[in-house]
Design brief:
141 residues; mainly alpha; 2 domains
């Protein structure tokens, strides 16, 4: 059951993430909070994970956070394929693909990118060609 305050938290964080005028530090903190929140929709989680993966991929110090980010992303997506299959398009087709990538041998941002590429087809979410290309590059590294 979703507590009343928790649903407002997700709505507030979503509005912050969509605000183009907020300082980066507020966006980053909001993105992390959405990523750890159990009440974010798969679509919102995908968008936030995508933006964070691309951002982290550009950092000089990415090796220090990639493993923790990978753990967070795989944990959340395994939870979705286990407990929220109904939220995916064609769950019989996409859930096993997502689970395979989550449990795969890849590590770090490469694994995150592969999980997100598997999840992309299962969701009704659009991403720019540039973001898709960046995600594919991360999956190849």
């Amino acid at each position: 059951m979703v507590a009343h305050g928790e649903s407002f938290l997700v709505v507030d964080l979503t509005s912050i993430l969509q605000d183009q005028g907020i300082p980066f530090s507020q966006w980053f903190l909001s993105a992390i909070l959405v990523s750890i929140n159990d009440f974010a929709t798969p679509e919102l989680l995908f968008q936030v994970n995508l933006q964070l993966a691309i951002f982290i991929g550009k950092l000089d110090w990415k090796k220090f956070v990639a493993q923790d980010f990978e753990s967070l992303v795989t944990q959340k997506w395994l939870n979705i394929v286990t407990n929220q299959r109904f939220a995916l398009r064609s769950p019989q087709f996409f859930a096993p693909k997502i689970e395979t990538e989550c449990r795969g041998a890849e590590m770090g941002l490469k694994k995150v990118a592969r999980v997100l590429l598997a999840a992309h087809g299962a969701l009704n979410v659009r991403i720019s060609e540039e973001s898709l290309e960046q995600l594919k590059k991360l999956a190849e590294r």
